[in-house]
Amino acid sequence: MPSTIESLHNATVMITGAAMGMGKMYAHLAVKDRTAHVVLWDINAELLDAAVAELSGQGSAIHGYVVDVSKLEDIEATAEKVRSEVGNPDILINNAGIVRGKYFWEHDQRSDIAATMAINTLALMHITREFLPGMIDGGRTSRIVNVASAAGLLANPRMSVYSSSKWAVIGWSDSLRLELAQAGHQHVKVTTFCPSYIKTGMFEGARGPLMTPLMEPEAVTERVWQAMKEGAPMLMMPWTVKLSTALRGILPIAAWDVVAGRVFGVYKSMEHFTGRK
């Protein structure tokens, strides 16, 4: 079996948070690669309908499903619809996410803490659990992309809940990769994506650390798409994420705090965060 997917012509691609931003960009890449089916999940019905209309008529069958991924019952019901109406996806991109940028004690326990963990962490697990058995049993080359964050690798003020949600994703996602390999299911590969700030509006007001400018979403989605095809275990963007992770691992905490706070400016990157309006 080749390590890189050469053709997606017979594949079904499913993307969460697909009605706008990078989710819709992944959908455009799927259509460009002439996938058989593109399944879009999003909570916003109006934007979802617009995305389906925008993507239709270009060769791929486009299927839109309104779903609240913070609710397990919604995930279960919609997953059953997908399996019966389209079939089990071959490519799953867990893209949906939210961010709350404030000090921990300012978070509301339901609308901030519970919602962040439900959407950013638990939803990825529940959605993958719905479709992974079909990927395993189908025997077809399959891929799972889990969108984490550089914030899941490095602590940062005003990101405590968001960071914890992405920290959990990284641990789960990479463990899943190892489990699949250990169990002999090499046809299913998992890519964990850990980006710094991207110009999508989600992190409006955030400032990139030293040598880490906000990235252009089009370039990022194309790189993730290629990593997915290759079955890359982890993708960190930009290169400074790897550097920061390495330095955090070898420096004493006090020294790292000086480097991250005063030199790189990581600890000040969320001071002017406003988020998407």
UniProtKB/TrEMBL annotation:
PROSITE patterns the UniProt entry points to: ADH_SHORT
SUPFAM superfamilies linked to this entry: NAD(P)-binding Rossmann-fold domains
Record-linked InterPro entries: NAD(P)-bd_dom_sf, Sc_DH/Rdtase_CS, SDR_fam
UniProt keywords, alphabetically: Oxidoreductase
Membrane-spanning parts: none
GO molecular function terms listed in the Swiss-Prot or TrEMBL record: oxidoreductase activity, acting on the CH-OH group of donors, NAD or NADP as acceptor
Pfam families in the record: adh_short
Record carries keyword Oxidoreductase: yes
Matches recorded under CDD domains: 17beta-HSDXI-like_SDR_c
Similarity comment: family membership: Belongs to the short-chain dehydrogenases/reductases (SDR) family.
Name assigned to this protein: 3-oxoacyl-ACP reductase
Natural source organism: Arthrobacter psychrolactophilus
